[in-house]
Amino acid sequence: MEEQIDKYLQGQLSAEERVAFEARCKAEPALTAALVDFVTAEHAARRYARQARFDALNGVYDELAAAGKTTVRTLNLRTYVMVAAAAVAVLAAVFVGYQQLQTPTPEGLYAEYVTPFPLSFQRGASTDTLNQLSEVYYQGDYEKAITLTQDLLTDSTAENRNKLYMCLGMSLLLKDQATEAVAAFQQVAPVSSFIENAQWYTALAYLKANDIESAKPLFEEMASSDHYKRQAAAEILENL
Amino acid sequence: MFGKKAHSDQVIIDHIRQGGVQRSRYESIFYRQFAYFVSTRPAKYALSDEEARDAYTEAFMAVVDHIVSGRFKGDSSLKTYLSRIFRNKCVDRFRKNTTIKVEWVDEFPDLPDDSRDFLRQMVGVEMVQQVEHYIGKLGKGCQDLLRYSGRGYSPAEIAAELGFSSARSVSSQRYKCLGRLRKIMGR
Known about the structure:
CATH architecture of the largest domain in chain B: Orthogonal Bundle
Structural class of chain A: mainly alpha
CATH architecture of the largest domain in chain A: Alpha Horseshoe
Radius of gyration of chain B: 19 Å
Distance between the termini of chain A: 99 Å
Largest sheet of chain B: none
Helix content of chain A: over 70%
CATH topology of the largest domain in chain B: Rna Polymerase Sigma Factor, Chain: A
Mean pLDDT of chain B: 80
Helix content of chain B: 55-70%
CATH topology of the largest domain in chain A: Serine Threonine Protein Phosphatase 5, Tetratricopeptide repeat
Shape of chain B: globular
Order of helices and strands of chain A: HHHHHHHHHHHH
Mean pLDDT of chain A: 83
Number of helices of chain B: 9
Oligomer: heterodimer
Order of helices and strands of chain B: HHHHHHHHH
Number of domains of chain B: 2
Strand content of chain B: under 5%
Strand content of chain A: under 5%
Radius of gyration of chain A: 48 Å
Number of helices of chain A: 12
Number of domains of chain A: 3
């Protein structure tokens, strides 16, 4: 009888057997009582098993918790976005930095190509001031050279005006006064023998001032002509 | 999430459905894998650690049952599925609705619906509710056997777990244990 009941509860009877079993239960009080007993016992056993399993799993959790293994560093969406944004920013900064290392800045190009223009004021020049200017310029005292040159240029009849403007421009440029230097170089007369030097240093002064828009046409003009600095101008253009 | 490599859903599902020792092993792996859910429970329900742990365990048991019965179809990942049920269990706990809503006839999942109706007519609810405390009066051997049996282990698996000589002897012992239970219940 028990086996029959068990098979019934396990769903192991065919449809016909099941219907027949249920009909017998209705007709036989003893079978019904046995079924009720079996069901209640089976149910109790399953509930017991379920509770035991529940307690065992909770025990696993408690062990994990005691070992500090129930918390993980989880990131919510907002944190993920922030971390991702920070990572992108760092990568961008690294990329830009790398690019900057690979591509010289205008000021870097200026520093690479600028060299003091060799101004020669022959000894025995017409004035003491001109002699003094020659001395301080070669000593690298550009501040003094600026003052002396400006003094000399106040005399509209002064000799070597184009050379003096070159000296003034160079001194200003080397004292990091790029804009004033450009103004001085632009005073050199187009017919002067210093005009190519003035053009070259004007372009460098624009680089120093980070004014690429003004520098580029000058370098392009030099690179496409037989300018004495055409090779250097072409190199700078490649890096601009 | 971090540390040990997580097992794939399919590996866990396959081993749980395989039953026996593999089922126990992979249930444990699965349970441990997402135990951190307890610490990431929704704050708005203000559950204690213990309540959240119970909610997680209930959710986990439901998911395993769904895997075994085939109710879990794999439409979502196990993590998503478990997370959804865990949240529902947290809501239940929050509403103090902590009774596990398992109707006693649900303990017989292999029965067709019309037979369940038949059982409801034959067996009173009160009768079922009374018997649970009697099982503790059984010997340890019967308790163990009924625990495995109640978890859905086959007689062969129980034989391997508890050291019975054969599946047949497990079935025989099970009937004896149920008979003892009925005797304790005074029937």
